[in-house]
Amino acid sequence: FNSLMKHKQQMESVSHLAAGFAHELRNPLSVIRGFIQLSGLTNNIEKYYKTILSEIDRMNEIIEDFLSLSRNNSRKQVQEPNELFHSLIPLIRSECILRNITFDYQFEKTNRRIYFDKSMIKQIILNLLRNAVEAFEEKQNDKRFEIRTKALKDVYQVTVSDNGPGMEKSVLEKLGKPFFTTKENGTGIGLPLCKKIIKDHEGEFYIDSKLGEGTTITFTLPFVND
Ligand code: ADP
Ligand code: MG
């Protein structure tokens, strides 16, 4: 009986996941369709390029998240972290400009190195950015998104914060669980995936959020001894 229940629960989470996946892809897809249709009417596709491209990128991110859930062979390398963080600035900046969010960053320079997979850490940052973007209410003034890094004694510490609506206690408590989402079209794999990636890197992952004040995510990546 127990194993039957377990099987039932597994099937439920698989179908939940599949539904979330489909919904999340459908959104950007319908935006793309709409914009191509519009550009046909106005004969002015240039105007819509940006949105179409960013929606296609969004679809790629979603697919990437799903693939990563099951991927085990990561491509870790011993490398210096700042280059990666700097390379993400243009992408984050343009996303923020598009949504009227002020982006601020401060990366502490370090000569020390970390054993990490660039694309995985990039994925974490993009997921956190996405969550912040989705959390902000349209009418909020002075929206801010911020990334700070610090070289501590043994670890590189990354802090990603927004001054959005924050989370209720009941939401915070459920956050660890896979597929937990408060969004109509959410998948609930963003934060669990971030946690999994950091665990694979032997770092720590913390979530701190206050209702009405914002959300701060902190994670660490251990330096290699050299
Ligand atoms: P999804 O984004 O698909 O809902 P996540 O795992 O990324 O899944 O996030 C889970 C939930 O955590 C979200 O549905 C939302 O309620 C909450 N959340 C995550 N990030 C933030 C944030 N920056 N501000 C407010 N709520 C957040
Ligand atoms: Mg998310």
UniProtKB/TrEMBL annotation:
Keywords: ATP-binding, Kinase, Nucleotide-binding, Phosphoprotein, Transferase, Two-component regulatory system. Its EC number is 2.7.13.3. It catalyses: ATP + protein L-histidine = ADP + protein N-phospho-L-histidine. It comes from the Bacteria. The keyword Iron-sulfur does not apply. Residues 20-225 form the Histidine kinase domain. GO terms for molecular function: kinase activity. This is histidine kinase. It comes from Scopulibacillus daqui. The chain holds residues 204 to 429 of 429 of the full protein.
